Amino acid sequence: MTHEDIILSINNLAISFKSFSGRVRALRGVTIDVVRGKTIAIVGESGSGKSVTVKTIMRILSKNEKIESGSIVFNNKRDNEIVPIDLLKLSNKHMQREIKGKKIAMIFQDPMTSLDPTMKIGKQILEAIFAHKKIKLKAAVEQVHQLLETVGIKNIKAVMNAYPYQLSGGMRQRIVIAIAISCEPDLLICDEPTTALDVTIQSKILDLIKKIQKARNLSVIFITHDLGVVSRIADQVYVMYAGKIVEYGTCNDIFYDPRHPYTWGLLESTPDMAYLQERLASIPGTPKRMIGDVKGDQFAERNRYALNIDFRMEPPFFKVNDHHFAATWLLHPKAPQIRIPESLRKRIDLMKEENRNG
Ligand SMILES: Nc1ncnc2c1ncn2[C@@H]1O[C@H](COP(=O)(O)OP(=O)(O)OP(=O)(O)O)[C@@H](O)[C@H]1O
């Protein structure tokens, strides 16, 4: 693929944090390509590095954070020309003026982090528009109406006059989405935007993001710990563990032909897929914090299929097909033949069957 097709390339990104117990290695060589007009999901348990990855794209860095290596190239479209920019090399001023909220927008799990509790909704959306566009008040108000309509709000006047605390969580998230798309960004980053919502509302917000993505040919990075959400929204999936991508592929690759034991564990513990089982299987143990130098495959201790080599050497990516790769020694030609757990195999067969029957 050329940089026409890839809107954002994260290359070998390594990030660490200074802490009292030592250097926390939050990202250890993350490489991700976001295809223009598509949705990628980054999925993994809490602490795997999803938020640090997307916050680094937005250059929201903590004081104790250090970029050890890597680049984040944004292929910026300007007057039909593509101009690659390494976001890590941009000045704060340039980032703020040209990229943040204009080319790349982000929505967070808690809408209140982006909304001002003391300002009426209508005014907040107007301010977002005025921050990037010089237009007359009347035209801007017209735009606020259109945006609120786009995000499925019916009683527009009442909502414009409301304060955030007067709206439900789902409504607030709709407002945040309206603000995010107000400046017509090319890339939208969604950091667990539906996690705090109840299941019905979650589903509506996912549908809304999908609808907006299609209508505006937006590229989306969606981060979540929930593979059920991924299956509804993503074209491509990156599975993350302990600061590394451990498997990536299309949605079909990851759901119907997963190869990494960590992905198996995530799939086995996904409620949406668990209709065949009474009890959800969960991955034993918890992810550990990566402090100082680390050796071997970080998932080995929790992996019931771990080989001796896993405790000594980190696995490289092995190719499953042109778009599907997994970093597990189980894919080495000389590794013992280990098959996907039988219970998961059955569920995948059933999902395939259901898909065939529509
Ligand atoms: N400011 C910080 N100082 C020290 N360590 C940090 C800091 N921010 C993040 N980390 C560490 O970086 C690692 C990755 O965290 P991150 O928040 O990206 O995980 P996550 O996958 O997004 O999880 P969650 O879903 O809980 O947000 C964790 O080990 C975390 O403790």
Q: How would you portray this structure in words?
A:
This protein is α/β, with parallel strands linked by helices and about 350 residues long. It has a domain at about 1-105 and about 220-358: P-loop containing nucleotide triphosphate hydrolases (Rossmann fold, 3-Layer(aba) Sandwich). The chain has eleven helices and twelve strands. The strands form two sheets. It has an eight-stranded mixed beta sheet, sandwiched between helices. The protein has a four-stranded antiparallel beta sheet with strand order 2-1-4-5, with helices on one face. Strand 11 and strand 12 form a beta hairpin. The longest helix has 18 residues, at about 200-215. The radius of gyration is 21 Å and the shape is globular. The chain starts with 5 loop residues before the first strand and ends with a helix. The mean pLDDT is about 90. Adenosine-5'-triphosphate (ATP) binds near residues 24, 44, 47, 50 and 64. Keywords: ATP-binding, Cell membrane, Membrane, Nucleotide-binding, Transport. Its main location: membrane. One of its GO terms (molecular function) is ATP binding. This is Oligopeptide transport system ATP-binding protein. It is a peripheral membrane protein.
